[in-house]
Specification:
about 475 residues, alpha/beta, OB fold (Dihydrolipoamide Acetyltransferase, E2P), 2 domains, six-stranded mixed β-sheet, 10 helices, about 20% helix, globular
Length: about 475
């Protein structure tokens, strides 16, 4: 399929390339990447689902409690009174560290769905489950209490560990005057680079879908990265791309055959899942890339790996063409690595989309910043986001601040820099879904700037012939 697309864009490539006087043009050496994987904590060894999920909340609170206690003393003074819920006295001003639980009437529940006593009609699908009746409840190791006052329930989600300051004024309710989060963790110094070096980020390729423009744009993107597109200036620029990171949802949602598991076996005996052809396309595309540049491949919501976070790397047997190359790395979701001394951390987008459904926040960058200041990648796991039942340690807690923090499958490309209280500087990136936006992005490791690479097409109603436009 990709070889056919290569032939289709050959004419377009010739328009963009300058013919040289020699049969063979200059050779541009690709920048040698300095790479160090740091995602060991997201790898699962022996898997057991016999444990209760309550352990992960207890572990999360135990790990973040000392950090929040220190932050609370910095904000409200060293003499602030730290209390457990069991030691509360009516009207006493104090600070409490605990885990938030958000009571939501609209939250989907399997118990509500199978209950026969309500006899309710099926509810329409919702994009958000918040309502004005939502309540925040704070839990510590022993008890829980309802919150009121200066705290916005719409902005918070279940699983967030925070410190609150106030007093119990109404019986059974704590009146919040102020609150604080753990804020950004410590950050290692950012290295100084002498030249521009880029990492290309792309997400939501949507292979196996019906969008022909996205397939052509993807082939053009591959040709650009491998130096087969453009003049000598474009080719020398492509040589500065030291790594390609594919952030999940490589396959289209249409490849998920939900009826396959319930359909009679004799009806599927001579058929194969649509994801099989999509994986072949992905393997062919990766074969073109890995011969030229190192590629990290993250799984996403629609990719063939485990559903719960952390998603484990896809198996190499699914990539017979590209897996023999040492430049192909199948990585976990979440992803963490040091590239040229800069810490990259990110997900394929499940954590951001889940928080978006259960809070009033719509902006992906705002949600990314919120998780960073909470020091937790996925606070809604395991309540509304599937995750492994960790027992002794919560791997989603951020122990070191990244330099680049990203999430995939966003509706559009967004980026901004934020600064922590101790001078930490982080570039936040919402990587757009490529199959719908035809856009990827380049991160300059020297300046921490984010540049879009867009492939747009004229519509059939335009006066000019339909063709692909490349801009970056």
């Amino acid at each position: 399929m990709f070889s056919e697309l290569s032939a289709q864009v050959e004419g377009l490539s010739s328009l963009l390339c300058r013919p040289g006087s020699e049969e063979r043009g200059p050779v541009f050496e690709r920048v040698e990447p300095a790479f160090s994987p740091c995602a060991e904590r997201f790898k699962l060894g022996e898997r057991s689902f016999n444990r209760q999920y309550a352990h992960i909340y207890a572990t999360r609170l135990m790990q973040i409690n000392p950090l929040l206690t220190e932050r609370a003393k910095q904000k409200w003074g060293d003499d602030v009174l730290m209390r457990k819920l069991c030691d509360l006295h009516m009207g006493e001003q104090c600070c409490i560290v605990g885990t938030l639980f958000k009571h939501m009437e609209l939250q989907p529940s399997i118990l509500k769905e199978i209950s026969e006593e309500h006899n309710l009609l099926p509810q329409p699908a919702r994009t958000k489950y918040i309502s004005q009746s939502d309540e925040l409840i704070l839990e510590d190791e022993l008890q829980r209490i309802k919150l009121e006052g200066n705290i916005n329930a719409d902005k918070f989600v279940t699983g967030s560990v925070i410190a609150i300051y106030g007093a119990e004024k109404n019986y059974g309710k704590f009146t919040v005057e102020d609150f604080c989060t753990a804020d950004l963790p410590p950050q290692s110094p950012r290295p100084t680079l002498n030249s521009d070096r880029f990492v290309l980020l792309a997400s939501g390729l949507g292979l196996g879908g019906s969008n022909a423009d996205s397939m052509l744009a993807l082939q053009l993107l591959v040709d650009m990265v491998t130096g087969q597109l453009g003049d000598q200036g474009e080719q020398s620029g492509a040589a500065t791309i030291s790594r390609v990171l594919l952030a999940g949802n490589l396959l289209s949602q249409s490849t998920q055959d939900k009826d396959a598991s319930t359909r009679a076996k004799y009806l599927t005996k001579k058929t194969q899942a649509s994801s099989v052809d999509a994986m072949k396309l992905l393997d062919e595309m990766l074969l073109q890339l890995v011969g030229s540049v190192p590629v990290d491949v993250m799984p996403g919501q629609y990719d063939p790996t485990n559903f719960t976070l952390p998603q484990q790397p896809m198996h190499r047997c699914m990539f017979p063409l590209s897996s023999p190359y040492p430049t192909l790395r199948l990585v976990s979701n979440p992803y963490q690595a040091d590239l040229h001394g800069l810490r990259f951390l990110g997900t394929s987008g499940q954590n951001v989309c889940d928080i978006k459904r259960y809070s009033s926040m719509d902006d992906h960058l705002e949600i990314l910043e919120n998780t960073l200041r909470l020091r937790h990648l996925a606070p809604t796991a395991p309540d509304t986001l599937g995750c492994y039942p960790f027992y002794q340690k919560d791997p989603f807690i951020l122990e070191e601040c990244p330099h680049v923090y990203f999430s995939g499958s966003a509706p559009s490309l967004q980026s901004k820099r934020i600064t922590g209280s101790d001078g930490q500087e982080v570039l936040l990136i919402a990587i757009p879904e490529f199959c719908s936006t035809l856009t990827a992005c380049l991160v300059n490791l020297r300046t921490l700037d984010c540049e879009p690479i867009s492939f747009s097409s004229f519509s059939a109603n335009d006066d000019e012939d339909s063709e692909m436009n490349i801009s970056h």
